[in-house]
Amino acid sequence: MKVYLVQHGEAKTEEKDPERPLSKKGMKDVQKVAAFLAGAGVKVARVLHSGKKRALETAEILATSIGSERKVDEVGGLKPLDDPRIWFERILKAKEDTMLVGHLPHMSRLASLLLKGDAERNAVNFKQGSVVCLENPGDGNFSVEWMVTPELIPG
Fold first, then answer.
1. Does pLDDT of 68 surpass 80?
2. Measured distance CA(55)–CA(59) in Å, rounded
3. Interval 102-111 mean pLDDT
4. Of 9, 89, 91, 135, which shows the fewest CB atoms inside 10 Å?
């Protein structure tokens, strides 16, 4: 089973728009990553997001490009300061490849918990619009398969 952890793309500042949707650069970056993932054949059963506008927009772009079997869904436990153990437990029980779109510090803490067993021991340096693919062969031991950031993709 694979889990894809995504930090939303760059958002507008709160002063420009209190809902903080993706900026033009954020939208372009996420589209670039989405096209890359589609070209690499990434498929997921579900794309889940925190409900914040920037995460929803990121999730919709990714789901459209990679052809998620289901539409995007808002779920609890993915907000910036939520306890990563919520999704740690859910991921351990998951049977389908899933994409989670959220925020820092939550995504970083969740990745650290999955990889090192400790949310406070940083394991991944997320960038806005980045995707980290973690794989669990079924024994509860996750490893990093790959990571892609917008800066790595030409164009």
1. no
2. 6
3. 98
4. 89
